[in-house]
Each structure stands twice: as C-alpha cells, then as structure tokens.
Design a protein that fits this description.
four-stranded mixed sheet, binds oxa(dethia)-CoA, globular, 2 domains, alpha/beta, 325 residues, 11 helices, Peroxisomal Thiolase, Chain A, domain 1
Length: 325
C-alpha cells in the first residue's frame, strides 16, 4: 500500500489586512514589506474564530474532493501551534465538528514544519496497513499571539488552514520519501515565551509581553536558506532523482527572498516554485497544505507529477517530502 494525497481543501478568515493597513498601525511601508518579504496581504481571524473553525471548513472541502464522508475517516492529525486551547487537541474538536467516528485524533507541534511531520506519520500508518483514509490538516492563527506594535513580527503572519485526505492506494508512488530534522539548541530564536510550564500566563508575564511571538528574523533567515537547500539536495540524492525530475516545489513561505536563495542553490528556477506568500503571508503549519491546494487548483500538479515540499521553522524544525501525484 502507498500513501497518496488524493484531495485538498483551504480555508482562511474573511478579513484581509493589506500592507497599507499595517502602515497605519506601525512604522512600516507597503514598499518595505513587499521588497523585504514578498507579502502584500494576509487574512486575520476576528475574535471568536478559532483554529478548529478553519480546520473543519478546510477538512470538509478535502473530504468532498476525495468523495468520502467524515464517517470514512480512520484518523485525524492536526499540525498546529495555535490550537483552540493549550489542550485538549484541536484534532478532537475537529472530529466532533465533522461528525466523524470516535477515531484517533491528535495534534502535533512542529511549527512551520508540522504538515511534513504529519505527512510522514500518516504515510507510515497507511503503509503499515492500519488505516485507509487519514485526514491531515495544517492550521495556524499566529495573529492571535502577535504584538501589533512590533513591526519586526506583526507584518509577517496570517491565519489559515489547509486540509488533505491521505489515502491508501495500490500502485503509484504517492509519498515516496521524507527527511525530517530538529535542533532545540536554537529554540529561542522563534518562540512564544509564556503560556507553557516554563513561564505560565500571569499578569507579570503579560505585562512583560512574554505571551507574544518572538523571532530573531535575521538568524532564522540564514539558517532557513542553508537547511532548506541542503534538505532538498539530500532528499533528491537519496531517491535517485535530480532537480530536473521535479515538476513543482511547494515551499513553506516565510519570505520570498529565502525562497529565491534556495531556488538558486538547488538550481531550480522560481517558475517551478509555487508561491502564494503575497496573498497569505506566513501561515505557519497551514502554508504547505494551502499552497498544495492552490497548486492543484491552478493545474500546476497533474497525475504523475513529482513535487517536493520543503519547510523550516520554529523548534528549530525542518523537512522535505518527495511526492508523486
Ligand atoms: O516561518 C518560520 C521561519 N521564519 C522565517 O523564516 C523568517 C526569516 N526572517 C525574515 O524573513 C527576515 O529576517 C525579516 C523579514 C523578519 C526581516 O528582514 P531583514 O531584511 O532580515 O531585516 P532586518 O531584521 O535585518 O532589519 C533591517 C531593518 C532594521 O532597521 P535598522 O536597524 O537597519 O535601522 C529593522 O528595524 O529593517 C527594519 N524593519 C522594518 N522596517 C520597516 C524591520 N521590520 C520592518 C518593517 N518595516 N516591518
């Protein structure tokens, strides 16, 4: 049995925040954000809208696309670092909202690389013969953790969800190989200091702004370019493929300049990278499944095409997957 991504779905909040809106909030400019990141707009959830709402909407689309109902789902995996609650898992809330059977449902925390960690787990479950239909969702709402007075971070993130149905198929390649990695020595380059057991939420923690996302952007940038390029190279070499075999690269999208540098290093033109950062900003674990959904909708991925998905983010975590559609 091979694990195949058979359908996708996407959901974003209605409210759009344009760069020009941010100009009115912090000392920034539309030009700076476009030039330094490639971002133009992002979607921001209103109060009262939570991760499971978007995740469920995206999941319904993916189930429709696969021609199956929630009853057919054998397991629900949600990659997120901004679920509805610190616990229980958002996947359990999605199971209930979809009306799925009481199947295994859990969240996994690997920040921007969460979807690829989940894809690796889902593929292994399917190849073991344990499950036939797995719902794998990437969802994040990091705008809820942002300091809207900090121009270094508040212009960069948006909210969204991408869902996929991973199905057992005989024949075809499907998910061919995945390389995953992590390095906790640099955890504090990108993290939310308060809200866990190290610094529980308290009036003092909030007063000090420790409940907000913190990022050392310049350092992450350097590592992202080097590690993403190297991971793709390692993955292709291990699979006996070359960059020429790859139809499209579906990258995590934190900065267009990171992707241009990666494209340059691996010798693949930017025309083969699927880019939607201008519409959504950095949506963390949702970025790859959202981009996958749009790439398929735009006819960039047809049956038999080879795609590389690649990511780098908080943890630090990174990964790349080779998938034949
Ligand atoms: O998804 C998880 C992984 N995350 C990433 O991969 C993000 C990686 N990092 C980045 O994308 C970039 O480092 C940023 C977009 C965060 C920053 O871009 P940069 O080109 O590295 O800028 P910088 O941090 O070197 O700052 C350059 C200047 C600074 O001013 P001074 O000190 O030179 O006077 C910043 O204060 O740009 C300033 N700046 C801004 N100016 C206008 C920083 N943010 C802004 C802003 N508007 N929003």
């Amino acid at each position: 049995m091979r694990a195949q991504i058979v359908s996708t779905g996407l959901a974003v909040p209605e409210r759009v925040l344009h760069n020009t809106d941010l100009e009115k909030m912090v000392d920034t400019s539309d030009q700076w954000i476009r030039d330094r990141t490639g971002m133009v707009e992002r979607h921001v959830a209103d109060n009262g809208v939570a991760a499971s709402d978007l995740a469920t909407a995206a999941a319904r689309q993916a189930l429709d696309g696969a021609g199956i109902s929630a009853e057919d789902v054998d397991a629900i995996l949600v990659a997120t670092i901004s679920g509805d609650y610190p616990w229980p898992a958002t996947a359990c809330l999605v199971q209930h909202k979809l009306g799925a059977k009481p199947v295994m449902a859990y969240d996994l925390s690997a920040a921007c690389t969460g979807y690829l960690y989940g894809l690796s787990q889902a593929s292994a479950f399917i190849e073991s013969g344990k499950f036939k239909n797995i719902l794998l969702i990437g969802v994040d709402m990091l705008t809820k953790t942002l300091d809207w007075t900090d121009r270094n971070t508040c212009v960069l993130f948006g909210d969204g969800a991408g869902a996929t149905v991973i199905q057992a198929r005989e024949g075809g390649e499907g998910v061919i190989d995945t390389i995953l990695g992590a390095d906790g020595s640099s955890a504090e380059l990108l993290y939310q200091p308060a809200g866990g057991s190290r610094i529980p939420i308290s009036a003092e923690a909030v007063e000090a702004g420790k409940h907000h996302l913190f990022m050392n952007g310049r350092e992450i940038f350097k590592q992202a370019v080097r590690v993403m390029a190297q991971t793709i190279a390692d993955l292709l070499q291990r699979s006996g493929k070359t960059a020429d075999d790859v139809t499209v690269v579906i990258p995590h999208q934190a900065n267009i300049r990171i992707l241009e540098a990666v494209a340059d290093r691996i010798g693949v033109g930017m025309d083969r990278f699927f880019i939607n950062i201008h519409k959504y900003g950095n949506t963390s674990a949702a970025t790859i499944p959202m981009a996958l959904h749009e790439a398929r909708q735009e006819g960039r991925l047809k049956t038999g095409d080879l795609a590389v998905m690649v990511s780098f983010g908080g943890g630090l975590t990174w990964g790349a997957s080779l998938v034949q559609f």
